[in-house]
Amino acid sequence: MKRIDLPLDRVVDEIGKFYQFDRHHFIVMNAVDLGDSIELQWFFSDYAAPGEVTMFAAKTDASHIIPSITRVVPSAWVAEAELVDLMGINIENAKKGFVLEEDFEGAPLRKKQ
Amino acid sequence: MATYYDIPVGAQHISLLEPLHFKLTTDNEKIVDVEANVGYVHRGIEKACTTKFKFRQVSFVVGRICGLCSVSHTTAYSQLAEKLLNLEIPLRAKYLRILVLELDRIHSHMLCLSHVAENSGFEALFMRTMKDREISMELLEAVCGNRVQYDYSIVGGVARDLRPEVAQMVLKRLKELRPKVDDLIDIFQNNWSLSLKNKGIGAISREDAMRLNAVGPLARAAGVPVDVRNDTEDLLPWKQVGFEMVLENGGDVHARNMVRLKELLVSMKIIENVIQGLPEGPVVAETKALPEGEAVVRLEAPRGELFHYAKGNKTQYLERLKVKAPTFSNIPAFVEMFKGNEYASAPAIIASYDPCLSCTAR
Amino acid sequence: MKAFFIAIGNLFKRPATIQYPFAPTYKPDDYRGLIVHNPELCIWCRRCEMACPPGAIVFSQAMDGSQTYHYNRAVCIYCGECVRNCPKPGAIVQTATPASPALRDENINNSWAETVKQALESRAAYMAEKKRQSAAKQQQGGENPS
């Protein structure tokens, strides 16, 4: 697995340069709670090079508004909507209420302080 | 000036097996727009796997996410834990895992085909496919001990060994199943009234399938060559046991049926190769280490690509576990597939897409 | 046209219905059945309790140190992890008898939560008593040589 660490404001540009729709396949977006910050991860695989998985990672704060990658990968709205519900982060253009109810309070996957 | 009506194909519907909700905006029977809502069976499994269950017990919990593709989740998690522990499992265990994965694929594809037949109105074919599926359920009970949710893969190998009389039983019953599958291919391909409901309905083009990142038989029926069994030769020896990818073009319901039927034949060939070439040796490897680091595993479930990510921190409990189901990736492609079709074909399209909502909203 | 002949032929075949539950279905002879514990061979290490995924085994401890084994057949998933983790072969085994269905009078789920709570409390009370006794002995031993 190839891991590329980037600052948050460069992620959308780097993914835009990297992703070609007939060669790469977007798997999923993930978030891990590290205690004092949250690490976001985007996974891609390659049709031409079987078995290779590329991961873009960025660290952020819970209160930042995270840019959405849907203008590069249109089908990513599903993964972003799930993370907004479960981790309590803000992604632009993603509404709450996809997996949990809309008026659910709290974020289940965050560690308790 | 057209009037648009909002019709729900609701969470409770006679023809749906899973709690799926679509709000279809229709213009006099043609579907124009779709809104999807899938979170009806969220159970918080990712949270439970990091707080309540130790990392060796998580393989039993993860197998209960879904009833149809249960062994795919257990095997993917076991491979992931073995990567975190740096453990190498014996070759006999790898071959036995392939055997149960392919038996599971047979029963799951036959369930989907019978459901497509039922939603197209052909109930006699539904009953007949289910009767032929009983052969594979008996084989699964003989090999694993249970008809659904067989806890077969554990961290380090497999739980039970394959006895010689059970292996002979598997070969004998597969010989009975093959002419039945050939009959089914004949009916699904040539029956005139079934083709009116299946050909040309719910089509998706190859470019749309690539742009929307579709996986599984849905993508292979549109001509996209994506199959994880091609990519993961280091974890399980797929090409050695005779795996071949099945592709069609057309992308409609008929093409998806054909892909599933041809994959049944490929699975039966793989099972025969595995039983005849099974190596000797132990079936489980022991270790006392604790998981650390992070790792990623992809596996081909009957419905597409399954993805597990885990992070360990040298204790008995994992730090983060992420599970992505194949139906989750297919939701954008599915929303696209409805547009332009008649409202009455909606149940047949949903059945051919083969959703598994328990995996999607865990 | 061929369908017509198939339909006539089917009139003379017997029905395809499987007669379960009036006739027995296929049961393998290594069926995953009930778990049985042998107190003579057990060394009371409690590894089966730690390995059980749903928590169907629990040990309670009396004040003289002896332990008792409790098992709930409705919570058990018959996976065999307890058998695989036991260091003494034969102390806990999986038989091939199917479990009988739970009756309402047994109150099997609610009473199990109570059993688990009492078992853990009895073990905690025994450990506290042992610690108190060893602290008292150490204090006595510290005083005597003087």
How would you characterize the overall build of this protein?
The complex is a heterotrimer of chains A (113), B (362) and C (146). Chain A has 113 residues and is an alpha/beta fold. Helix content of chain A is 17%, strand content 31%. Chain A has helices spanning 11-18, 77-87; strands spanning 2-5, 24-33, 38-46, 53-60, 65-66, 90-91. The N and C termini of chain A lie far apart (32 Å). In chain A, 33% of the residues are buried. With 362 residues, chain B is of the alpha+beta class. Chain B is 49% helix and 14% strand. Chain B has helices spanning 45-51, 58-62, 70-85, 91-119, 123-144, 164-190, 192-198, 206-211, 217-221, 228-231, 253-276, 326-337, 346-353, 357-360, and strands spanning 5-9, 21-27, 30-37, 153-154, 157-158, 292-301, 304-313, 320-324. The termini of chain B are far apart. Chain C is of the alpha+beta class and 146 residues long. A two-stranded antiparallel ribbon of chain C has the order 1-4. Chain C is elongated, with a radius of gyration of 27 Å. Chains in contact: A-B, B-C.
How are the elements arranged and paired?
The complex is a heterotrimer of chains A (113), B (362) and C (146).
Chain A: E1 2-5, H1 11-18, E2 24-33, E3 38-46, E4 53-60, E5 65-66, H2 77-87, E6 90-91
Parallel strand pairs in A: 1-4, 5-6
Antiparallel strand pairs in A: 2-3, 3-4
Chain B: E1 5-9, E2 21-27, E3 30-37, H1 45-51, H2 58-62, H3 70-85, H4 91-119, H5 123-144, E4 153-154, E5 157-158, H6 164-190, H7 192-198, H8 206-211, H9 217-221, H10 228-231, H11 253-276, E6 292-301, E7 304-313, E8 320-324, H12 326-337, H13 346-353, H14 357-360
Helix pairs in contact in B: 3-4, 4-5, 4-11, 4-13, 5-6, 6-11
Chain C: H1 2-11, E1 35-37, H2 47-51, E2 57-61, E3 67-71, H3 81-85, E4 92-94, H4 108-143
Antiparallel strand pairs in C: 1-4, 2-3
Can you describe this structure in just a few lines?
The complex is a heterotrimer of chains A (113), B (362) and C (146). By secondary structure, chain B is of the alpha+beta class.
The CATH architecture of the domain at 22-99 and 109-119 in chain C:
2-Layer Sandwich
Given as residue ranges, the uncertain stretches of chain B (5+ residues, pLDDT < 50) are none
Please give the number of β-strands of chain C.
Answer: 4
Structural class of chain C: alpha+beta
CATH fold assignment of the domain at 22-99 and 109-119 in chain C: Alpha-Beta Plaits
What is the approximate shape of chain C? elongated
- The radius of gyration computed from the alpha-carbon positions of chain B, rounded to a whole number of angstroms, is 21 Å
Question: What portion of residues of chain B belong to β-strands?
Answer: 5-15%
Question: Sheet bearing the most strands of chain B, described?
Answer: 3 strands, antiparallel
**N- to C-terminal distance of chain B:** 43 Å
State the total count of DSSP E strands of chain B. Answer: 8
Strand content of chain C: 5-15%
